[in-house]
Amino acid sequence: MAKQAGARTVDLDPIDRLEEKIKLLVNVVTRLRAEQEKSADENARLLQEIEAMRGRLADVQGATAEIDALRQEREAIRHRVADMLSHLEAI
Questions:
Q1: What was the pLDDT predicted at 9?
Q2: Distances from the Cα of 75 to the Cαs of 7, 10, 31, 87, in angstroms?
Q3: Residue range 17-34: average pLDDT?
Q4: Cα distance between residue 82 and residue 80, in whole Å
Q5: Distances (CA, A) of 52 to 2, 47, 83, 91
Q6: Separation CA 1–CA 33 (nearest Å)
Q7: How far is CA 32 from CA 27, 28, 38, 68, in A?
Q8: Dmax over Cα atoms in the chain, in whole Å?
Q9: How far apart are CA 22 and CA 29, in angstroms?
Q10: Is the pTM for the entire model greater than 0.85?
């Protein structure tokens, strides 16, 4: 009878180790799922930030085009005024 009790104890050691490994694996899987969820949230936040930046970029590009048009218009007016002044000086 004593041999059977000792044999049962020895036989349970691999199961105990297996149980411990399974617990560790469950902890790792749980941690990885939490990290994946956190990464998904971060990706969603970054995508929103990218879209906001694209909108700002479009605004800046529009403003830049408007500034260029205004500079060209200013230069054209400057040339016309210079021509008018030269005509006035000629009179």
A1: 52
A2: 100, 96, 64, 18
A3: 97
A4: 5
A5: 75, 9, 47, 59
A6: 48
A7: 9, 6, 10, 52
A8: 134
A9: 10
A10: no
